[in-house]
Design a protein that fits this description.
The chain is mainly alpha-helical. The protein has helices at residues 34-58, 82-93, 97-102, 107-118; strands spanning 6-7, 14-15, 65-67, 76-78. The chain has a domain at 81-119. The strands form 2 sheets. The protein has a two-stranded antiparallel sheet with strand order 1-2. A two-stranded antiparallel ribbon has the order 3-4. It comes from Helianthus annuus. One of its GO terms (biological process) is positive regulation of transcription by RNA polymerase II.
Length: 119
């Protein structure tokens, strides 16, 4: 077997042995066990923080997230540094209303989109 032979199994041209790590799609369903549901939420919350950190570093942007859970009495903000929040908010407020709405997504339209994907 020639390891330098190009393989076209994926969209891009790869040389050598292809190692793929494929994650199966997360099944969207209600988790009945309360402890398992809390644990799943905690893991996804940490994953969201990691992804936000990666995107902000890779794209050289400042990003901020507010998370709310019915399991915890207070909102969780990440990163906790308030200067990041002020910078993101000021950048948003300096844009015109047309620019602000360009990439916005309303909650109800998001939910409808997700429901249609599940069906």
């Amino acid at each position: 077997m020639n390891l330098l032979k190009p393989t076209h199994k994926l969209q891009h041209l790869h040389f050598g042995i292809i190692l793929t790590m494929h994650r199966s799609k997360v099944k969207l369903a209600f988790i009945k066990d309360n402890k398992a549901r809390k644990n799943s939420f905690r893991k996804r919350k940490e994953c969201l923080k990691n992804k936000l950190k990666e995107v902000s570093i890779l794209c050289s942007i400042e990003a901020w997230v507010i998370m709310y859970s019915s399991y915890e009495p207070q909102l969780e903000v990440w990163p906790e540094d308030n200067t990041v929040f002020q910078n993101v908010l000021n950048a948003f407020l300096t844009k015109s209303p047309m620019e602000r709405s360009k990439f916005s997504l309303k909650h109800d339209s998001y939910i409808k989109e997700r429901i249609s994907k599940i069906k």
